[in-house]
């Protein structure tokens, strides 16, 4: 895997498949940026855990503790997340909505 956050950096020094999903504290995380895996986000939503918005267009917190970078979403994941949000199935923590919208909603 190539971390999309590394690819966006000024000097990525990227070798093909330089990054990987590694298990830390029982959760798959990107070896470069520390983001949890997209499956973790969708599982948390299914379990009714809070998604905490940030003032960044690219980052949320899952259950107030695990960071997730939207760059790790596939196009299908972006559509699924949007559908879940629009249907009210995402439990958004304070203030209850995305005051800074994810970059793929623009």
Structure overview:
With 106 residues, the chain is of the alpha+beta class. The protein has one domain. 25% of the residues lie in helices and 21% in strands. The chain contains three helices and six strands. The strands form two sheets. A four-stranded mixed β-sheet has the order 5-4-3-6, with helices on one face. A two-stranded antiparallel ribbon has the order 1-2. Strand 4 and strand 5 (66-69) form a beta hairpin. The protein is globular, with a radius of gyration of 14 Å. It starts with a helix and ends in a 14-residue tail after the last strand.
Indicate the percent of residues in helices.
10-25%
The multimeric state of the shown protein is single chain
Rounded mean pLDDT is 92
Distance between the termini: 26 Å
Order of helices and strands: HEEHEEEHE
Strand content: 15-25%
Structural class: alpha+beta
Lateral strand order in the biggest sheet: 5-4-3-6
- Outline the low-pLDDT stretches: none
Radius of gyration: 14 Å
């Amino acid at each position: 895997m190539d971390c999309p956050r590394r690819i966006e950096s000024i000097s990525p020094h990227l070798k093909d498949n330089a990054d990987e999903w590694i298990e830390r504290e029982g959760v798959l995380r990107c070896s470069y940026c520390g983001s949890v895996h997209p499956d973790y986000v969708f599982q948390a939503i299914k379990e009714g855990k809070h998604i905490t918005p940030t003032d960044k267009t690219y980052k949320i917190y899952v259950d107030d503790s695990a960071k997730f970078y939207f760059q790790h979403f596939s196009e299908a994941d972006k559509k699924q997340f949007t559908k879940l949000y629009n249907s009210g199935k995402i439990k958004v923590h304070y203030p209850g909505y995305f005051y800074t919208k994810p970059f793929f909603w623009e």
